[in-house]
Design brief:
mainly alpha
Length: about 450
């Protein structure tokens, strides 16, 4: 204890695992809200711009382009420079995107821009820029991982992702009411203020894990030694390119990518797509669609990550993943067969439970299987995995375009197929773990 106190005081080390978890969660909650960017408001904008169902599918998905792809470099860069500067950069870019969206929406409503094509292009552009906030997931996972030892990472990452993931659900639920009371521009302006405030909070309380603070003051070898004395278990490779390369060469990384594609990328996709499903397929009001999407689905999925992390710590991420993906498949089959509100509500709840727990289980496995390159693995899994949020909404819109009204139900076959594949991959990982331990 005296040695620990000496290191903290001598080198001016700030922060703790608790404050690291709080700061990371605050940043992720703020940035991840962009998943809900167009899910509700597209129903106001689409008639103004005369958008068809496929154009709607791409618009609701566009924030997830940068939200997914930028996770790869940003997640890996944490290994190089720490999470604080990376996360701040992501949030500031998101603020710029929100400002651009507000100006574009104002121009659309006032008729300042007469070309629907240009209006749509600007919404896509600034939606993509604002979506950078979504990529705080990968950098945040790496940021929090370095603060906690392996035995506590299931809980820590479950809490981080669970509460952070709650943002789209909350925003999807309140947006219809914000639109009614504040108007389209007013609702987005309030959202911008919230994002700025949360960015400032992170800037004030968010400190990098011990190693990253120490390596700026002493050489790497000494920084590693002292960080371990302070309780830090994970030490980065120190290079973003090296971290990406090392993690890419480990085959287990790619199984986790596919598993995360349907659980987390699928979560993002349904948060954007379900308002259209509820309104167009089952004729719910916008406000009711927002509640069903935001609270019944998105918030429940997010909060299930918290017990999912605890389950993964207790029983192992592999076992928990297998069971949770089976649950996901059951829910998706119900959605494929449903043509009533009650059955769809049941299917939605079952999918939410399975996907939320699966998300926690997968990221319990990332630092376990790629401890030498957590940032790189987080980038691949979080980035390519969350590409499901980009690809699935247009794919589900294509089912509607091809099959008509019944396509809203048939599109859930995507979740059935990828969910079943994830069950198989979970079994492979479980078998590998047993062999690796010599059982």
């Amino acid at each position: 204890m005296p040695r620990r106190k000496e290191i903290l005081e001598r080198y001016g080390i700030r922060g703790s695992p608790t404050t690291g978890l709080i700061a990371g969660t605050v940043a992720f909650f703020a940035g991840f809200a962009a998943v809900a960017l167009f899910g509700i408001t597209v129903h106001t904008v689409a008639p103004l711009l005369h958008l068809n169902i496929v154009e709607v599918g791409w618009l609701v998905a566009i924030p997830l382009v940068t939200g997914a792809l930028l996770r790869i470099p940003f997640g890996a860069l944490v290994d190089n420079v720490g999470g604080r500067r990376i996360i701040l950069t992501q949030l500031i870019i998101a603020v710029v995107g929100m400002i651009g969206l507000i100006l574009t929406l104002h121009a659309i409503l006032t008729g300042a821009v007469t070309s629907h094509v240009l209006d749509y292009a600007l919404l896509m552009l600034f939606g993509a820029v604002a979506g950078t906030g979504i990529s705080t997931f990968a950098s945040g996972i790496a940021y929090v991982s370095y603060w906690f030892p392996q035995k506590r990472q299931g809980f820590a990452l479950g809490a981080f992702a669970g509460f952070g993931n709650a943002a789209p659900g909350i925003f999807t639920a309140i947006l219809p009411y914000a639109l009614a009371s504040l108007g389209l521009v007013g609702a987005y302006t309030a959202w911008l203020v919230f994002l700025v405030v949360m960015t400032v909070i992170f800037a004030v309380i968010g400190y990098d894990a011990y190693y990253f603070q120490l390596v700026r003051r002493v050489n790497r070898d000494n920084a590693v030694g002292m960080a371990k004395e302070l309780g830090e278990e994970l030490i980065p490779s120190g290079s973003a390119v090296k971290s990406l390369g090392e993690s890419a060469r480990i085959w287990r990384t790619w199984l986790l990518v596919v598993m995360y594609f349907i659980s987390f990328g699928g979560f993002e996709a349904l948060t954007e797509w379900l308002p259209t499903y509820w309104t167009n397929y089952l004729s719910l009001s916008i406000a009711m669609a927002g509640l069903m999407t935001g609270i019944v689905y998105s918030l429940l999925t997010a909060l299930m990550r918290v017990p999912g992390g605890w389950f993964s710590d207790k029983w192992g991420g592999e076992k928990v993943a297998i069971v949770s993906y089976v649950v996901l498949v059951v829910g998706s089959v119900i959605m494929m067969l449903s043509h009533t509100f009650t059955l769809s509500a049941i299917g939605t709840i079952i999918m939410a439970i399975g996907m939320g727990i699966a998300n926690a289980a997968v990221f319990k496995l990332v630092p376990k299987y790629v401890p030498e390159a957590v940032g790189g693995a987080t980038g691949w899994v979080g980035g390519l995995g969350s590409a499901g949020g980009l690809l699935i909404p247009p794919a589900m819109a294509a089912f509607v375009a091809i099959y008509g009204h019944v396509g809203y139900a048939l599109g859930f076959i995507i979740y059935t197929v990828f969910g079943a594949l994830s069950v198989i991959f979970g079994i492979i990982l479980y078998s590998y773990e047993r062999r690796h331990k010599g059982h």
